[in-house]
From TrEMBL:
Single GO MF descriptor: zinc ion binding
Keywords: Repeat, Signal
Protein name (database record): NHL repeat protein
Classification via InterPro entries: 6-blade_b-propeller_TolB-like, NHL_repeat, TRIM-NHL_E3_ligases
Signal sequence, start to end: 1-23
NHL repeats: 221-261
Alphabetical list of Gene3D superfamilies matching this protein: TolB, C-terminal domain
Length: 314
């Protein structure tokens, strides 16, 4: 009973949300689905990571990593060798190298070259005693910092590129979470980091998405409902260079787009037989004017071109 009251209090506290912007400010145009020379790849709920420097997309599944260029064609794959291990998440570094989070008993990262060849391991050091059970499943890099996310614990650890602890972002107290059971009941579904180093995440039971800055400022957005701009079952989240934020909704089978002020702009996708339709979109990435959407039901990864008002007038 106390747990339900606490969650209700959080929902009430988040009631003051940004209002909708011009819903026709942008358009999403389907481009293609990720493929090889042999044709379409029926990925199933694949995890995504985007390399803005080289304009490449990493698709993770089954412990391996597949790399796609700006045309949506597979150009390389790695991660099936014993030295690297099973890759849970991967982040591109500013110098062209990669940092991988692997399914290891110890909290250790693996630095690789652009081909996924192991350079050396990076131990995460300096963690406070309260993080003894920290078990990250997500990894991102921004502004020279590494971000490791423990989805169930609702915690993000920030380190430097050598794995030295710098900061803990604990979302639990920010949402007045009272105990570990409530943390697990809520948890993160989607996790990402924008170009400025803000943490993006979604929480399904709250029907909300959030932006969290390194100084601890938490900005919620979205609300429950079936109308455009409202959430049913939130999942993945990403931001592009313009600050637009994209959130996938599993039940709507749509992507919701918000501007940098967190005002709703439009939705796209929806169930249907056409290439531009989506089915249970789960993970998402964005960059260089494109949005990459991973789906269930063997629908693969669809790629959309994002066109703003100025482009639509040309």
């Amino acid at each position: 009973m106390k747990q339900r009251v606490a969650i209700a209090a959080v929902l009430a506290a988040l009631a003051a949300l940004p209002q909708a912007a011009d819903a026709q400010a942008i358009r999403a145009r389907y481009l293609y689905s990720l493929s090889t020379l042999n044709g379409f790849i029926p990925f199933q709920g694949a995890r995504l990571s985007y390399d803005a420097r080289d304009d490449e997309l990493f698709v993770l599944g089954g412990g391996g990593v597949r790399v796609f260029n700006q045309s949506g064609m597979e150009v390389f794959a790695f991660g099936e060798d014993r030295e690297l291990g099973s890759v849970l998440s991967i982040a591109a570094l500013d110098d062209g190298e990669l940092m991988a989070l692997t399914a290891d008993q110890q909290l250790t990262l693996v630095r690789c070259n652009f081909r996924g060849e192991v350079l050396h391991k990076v131990a995460v050091t300096g963690l406070p005693p309260s993080l003894t059970n920290f078990r990250p499943g997500g990894l991102r890099q921004a502004q020279g910092h590494l971000y490791l996310c423990d989805f169930g614990a609702m915690k993000v650890v920030v380190t430097d590129l050598e794995g030295r602890f710098q900061q803990l972002l604990d979302v639990g107290p920010m949402l007045e979470v009272k105990n570990e059971q409530q943390r697990q009941d809520l948890g993160f579904k989607g996790f990402n980091v924008d170009r400025e180093g803000n943490v993006l995440f979604t929480i399904q039971p709250l029907f909300r998405a959030f932006v969290l800055s390194l100084d601890g400022k938490l900005r919620p957005f979205g609300q429950r409902g079936g109308a455009p701009g409202k959430f049913n079952i939130v999942a993945g989240i990403a931001a592009d260079e313009q600050g637009r934020i994209y959130v996938t909704d599993l039940l709507k089978s749509a992507v919701l787009v918000f501007d940098k002020e967190l005002r709703f702009q439009r939705e796209f996708g929806y169930r249907g037989p056409n290439p531009e339709n989506l089915l249970a979109p789960v993970d998402i990435e964005a960059g260089h004017g494109r949005v990459f959407v991973s789906q269930y039901a063997r629908r693969g990864v669809s790629v959309f071109q994002i066109e703003d008002a100025a482009q639509l007038l040309n």
